[in-house]
Design brief:
elongated; 2 domains; VC0802-like; 14 strands; alpha/beta; Rossmann fold
Length: about 375
């Protein structure tokens, strides 16, 4: 059965996710602002949840329609085939948002949609009420300019939660964004990766996982892995498929350092939890003392800034220091993510390429130097 899927994503990652989905054999992939649509079967549902490095979650698009009144909202939702996905005892909470639409009350929309789904399921199961004690089938609605999309979340906890980072520093970078930085920096299995401000080690760990082609979701659970509507065997099959595609014999190596000894302790624990500790060398060091120990290197970092440092003057001094130690060298590239509009002047030279990305709600640029 072909299923319509939607992936909500961090702004700026749509293209990366679209290309990743095509490599995972998704069909009819379409990138839109803040989301990517595609089609596939239940095996692909499991594959994307397990293997995607950049997606925030995987949702099933149950249906879309236009609605400017609560009656249109109710009837549109009631007409959708909820019984294909929600069983007799399944829980089906509703949440969502409305933007620039006639129906602006989220709580009212939530109540009406819940009622519509209940009425539809009553007709199917011939019962007056639902105990909702089974697996959760989270219904998500989005209403934008009176266009309603109704979805079912299959992931549960966001896909950036790989499971290897029980500990983090005060302002960790999201795993999905860290993976994206590695991808746009063209990290390869034979590269040496450096992060001289590594914090809890996320960029280094994501780089190692990418280089060895280890699926980021191998060791976590998903909301839909208990759904009766799906073949339970898809999870074992797709995890085995992912393991067969690993490249653990690659030459990848990484070096991470931070001025904070506690950050290094946490980073080492996280790397062990992720199963990549043997590929990463950690040390306590100040970025001003950074020197690559290999002939070639790929440097990727998310330096402290703004609210993380509480002093923008410190950020300016830090960028200036980075510009001095990240010198032009044959075989070396540098990617730095920052929200600063004066980064290039503070750093001391213009980037060879810039890419707009969001670190949470903070609009940033990835500044890339490789010439």
């Amino acid at each position: 059965m072909q299923i319509n899927f939607v992936i909500p994503c961090l702004l700026g990652l749509e293209g990366l996710i679209a290309e990743e989905l095509r490599q995972l054999d998704a069909a009819e992939v379409t990138a839109e602002n803040g989301r990517v649509l595609f089609k596939g079967d239940e095996n692909l549902l499991a594959r994307v949840n397990i293997c995607s490095r950049f997606a925030e979650r995987v949702q099933i698009l149950v249906g879309s329609f236009h609605a400017e009144s609560f009656e249109e909202l109710f009837q549109g939702a009631r007409a959708l085939p909820w019984e294909e996905w929600i069983g007799l005892r399944d829980a089906f909470p509703v949440k969502g948002y409305s933007l620039n639409s006639q129906l602006f009350s989220v709580s009212d929309c939530q109540s009406i949609l819940k009622k519509a789904v209940v009425e539809r399921l009553k007709e199917t199961y011939r019962i007056p009420w639902f105990e909702e004690t089974g697996p959760i089938h989270q219904i998500q609605f989005s209403i934008q300019k009176n266009e309603v999309s109704l979805l079912l979340d299959t992931s549960g906890a966001g896909l950036h939660k790989r499971g290897y980072r029980p500990q983090a520093n005060a302002a960790p970078i999201k795993e999905t964004l860290a993976a994206a930085l590695c991808s746009i920096s063209r990290l390869r299995p034979y590269h040496t990766l450096y992060d001289p401000m590594c914090g809890s080690g996320t960029i280094l760990i994501e780089g190692a996982l990418m280089a060895m082609n280890i699926a980021p979701g191998l060791h976590r659970n998903f909301a839909c892995d208990r759904w009766d509507q799906l073949d339970r065997g898809i999870w074992a099959r797709e995890k085995e498929r992912a393991r067969e595609n690993e490249k653990r014999d690659c030459e990848f190596l990484a070096y991470g350092s931070d001025i904070d000894p506690e950050a290094i302790r946490v980073a080492q624990l996280n790397a062990q939890q992720a199963g990549v500790a043997e590929r990463i060398r950690f040390s306590v060091a100040d970025v001003r003392d950074f020197q690559g120990v290999t002939e070639r290197g790929t440097v990727i970092c998310n330096p402290p800034y703004g609210e993380r440092l509480l002093d923008n003057r410190e950020a300016v001094r830090l960028y200036h220091t980075m510009g001095q130690v990240f010198e032009r060298r044959h075989g070396w590239s540098y990617t730095v993510i920052s929200p600063s509009e004066t980064f290039e002047s503070d750093f001391g030279r213009r980037a060879d390429k810039r890419r707009k990305l969001y670190n949470g709600m903070i609009r940033c640029q990835a500044y890339m130097y490789y010439k």
